[in-house]
Design goal:
This protein is of the alpha/beta class. The chain has helices spanning 26-37, 59-69, 96-105, 122-125, 139-148, 173-178, 214-233, and strands at 16-18, 42-45, 50-53, 79-81, 110-115, 130-135, 152-153, 155-156, 181-184, 195-198, 205-208.
């Protein structure tokens, strides 16, 4: 297994499992799922960068992320799901227009902010009453979420304020040492993260520019809204 460990992190090499980015081995995914179920944190590949995966419904696991990332408690953490059917785990009622938006842009590329389900760990919502959700596109992340059958945190594998990483070698040794397992799928594509879109208002709001241009998202919304009005009039 090749890994150019940074000084001070050689002890972490035993945590690393090399996984095929398209066809991850079932034993590797099962091991990662067991870590997450026990309250642990794994580094895993997402569409562009490596992320930190913990049980999104476990308050202690979410709190652990905030501590070692040094993340401001007022900043929410998005969650990853494997299918729209998993929305009920983290989100409240979602209207038909929002579901149509998801059908257009998922999996990947866009994180939608939705009304949060009551009882979620405080850190996920930052006290906003809202939750950011994205259906995963990367085969490894998707396999892990499906194995868990539960939402997974999707925050980037870095210290708060630092740049996200597209290769394991670039991840801060403090983060590497803090996690329990690393799923290494080699070099990821990098680039901008997901576009974050708030769907809790009458008109979507682009909260963060990203992989999908905001103009494209708003154009789709207007088309869907127009189609909905037309259907209601006929």
């Amino acid at each position: 297994m090749r890994w150019n460990a940074k000084p001070g992190s050689l002890k972490s090499t035993a945590k690393i499992i090399r996984v095929d980015p398209l066809h991850p081995a079932t034993d590797a995914i099962a091991r990662a799922a067991a870590v997450v179920r026990s309250g642990g944190v794994v580094i895993l590949p997402t569409s562009g960068l490596y992320g930190l995966g913990a049980d999104a419904l476990n308050p202690d696991a979410v709190e652990r992320l905030f501590r070692f990332k040094g993340r401001d408690r007022s900043k929410p953490i998005l969650v990853l799901i494997a299918s729209e059917a998993m929305l009920h785990q983290v989100a409240g009622p979602v209207d038909a227009l929002a579901r149509s938006m998801m059908a257009c842009f998922w999996p990947g590329r866009v994180t939608f902010v939705l009304p949060a389900r009551q009882g979620l760990p405080q850190g996920l919502t930052g006290g906003t009453g809202k939750i950011g959700v994205r259906q995963v596109a990367h085969p490894v992340a998707g396999a892990l979420v499906r194995a868990l059958d539960s939402a997974l945190t999707g925050t980037s594998a870095n210290l708060s304020g630092a740049t996200g990483c597209a290769v394991i070698d670039d991840i801060d040794p403090a983060v590497v040492d803090a996690v329990d397992l690393i799923l290494d799928s080699g070099l990821l594509r990098g680039g901008p993260g997901s576009t974050v879109v708030d769907l809790t208002m009458e008109k979507p709001a682009i909260l963060r520019a990203g992989a999908v241009p905001g103009d494209e998202i708003m154009a789709v919304f207007e088309q869907l809204q127009k189609a909905g009005r037309h259907a209601s009039e006929t």
